[in-house]
Design goal:
Length: 193
């Protein structure tokens, strides 16, 4: 003898009413309305996640670019300048081509020569440089990879660049030693990636 399961009983009831397998139009509309409501609720969460991700990505990108600029200055023995365009969130890394090409002049400050662009990049969408502690939005690394105030005087205090978007802000600190670190907030904990 064959035992009937719950599913089989339900199918028999539906068949007795003249109904075949499938969904009615009302059931389908209810399912679509539930899916639409879930999507509408999820969109702000996804936008917040994207802003948070862009902030972390921008902090990583800028930290890496500043470390590379300090390393380039130290290893190639050239003055290296990082110039920020705060409104657009772009930055440019340049090295000095000394006047007359003299190797002895590569590290001379005040600078005599022309700057050659090594890299130009933009922070992720929605990010902007909101403040920088150094003048003219320019950070100069000496041939020893140390930050300098463009007059031949090394900075006596750490220099900072703050990037921000709707998810918050990150502070990139350039230590007087040339070390570059990302902080969640000024004098705060290190960024976690």
């Amino acid at each position: 003898m064959l035992r009937m399961t719950g599913v089989m009983k339900m199918r028999l009831r539906h068949a007795a009413r003249g109904r075949t397998d499938g969904l009615s139009l009302v059931e389908l509309m209810v399912a679509l309305a539930i899916i639409a409501a879930l999507l509408v609720a999820a969109i702000p969460l996804l936008q917040g996640y994207q802003a948070s991700r862009n902030l972390d990505l921008g902090a990583q990108q800028l930290t890496a670019a500043l470390r590379a600029a300090a390393d380039r200055a130290r290893t190639e023995h050239y003055l290296t300048l990082v110039f920020f365009t705060t409104a657009s969130g772009t930055y440019t890394v340049q090295t000095l081509s000394p006047t007359g090409g003299a190797v002895a002049n590569r590290c001379a400050i005040p600078v005599a020569g022309t700057w050659s662009t090594v890299e130009t990049d933009q922070l992720p969408s929605g990010l902007a440089v909101t403040s920088a502690s150094f003048p003219s939005d320019e950070l100069l690394f000496t041939c020893q990879g140390m930050p300098d105030d463009n007059t031949g005087t090394p900075y006596a205090a750490d220099q900072t660049i703050v990037i921000a978007n709707s998810a918050g802000s990150r502070t990139i600190a350039v230590r007087v030693s040339g070390e570059v670190a990302c902080l969640v907030a000024a004098n705060g904990s290190p960024c976690t990636y």
